[in-house]
Amino acid sequence: MAALNRCPHxxxxxxxxLLKLTARHRSPAVCPACGGRSCTGITxxxxxxxxxxxxxCGTLLRAAARIGNRWTLLAVLALFGGGFLYICYRTPLxxxxxxxxQRNIAIVVVALLFAAGGGWWFLxxxx
Length: 127
Prior knowledge:
Oligomer: single chain
Order of helices and strands: EEHEEHHEH
């Protein structure tokens, strides 16, 4: 029997692992028990883990390219793919109704930070 993940709506273990790994905003996972739609949430810890994985694999990829062995390159790419799947597997499902609001708030905060940094850089005379 395949292991199931917990639905964030009804708290029952009804969502298969493969469906959870592919659950995104545009193609959500639908719970067969309650019909609730959910997607994989991006948490700060999973975002930091993805960033660390990219840094480590990028460094290893550069080292493997200097060596010139194609098996080393394939090993680094397999490490990246496996790490990506593991991080996505560990990231919890969230209710789809609150996901767009969180994403829009994050986009506005990042845009304001970039605008403030750009304004400071422009007004400080560095331009």
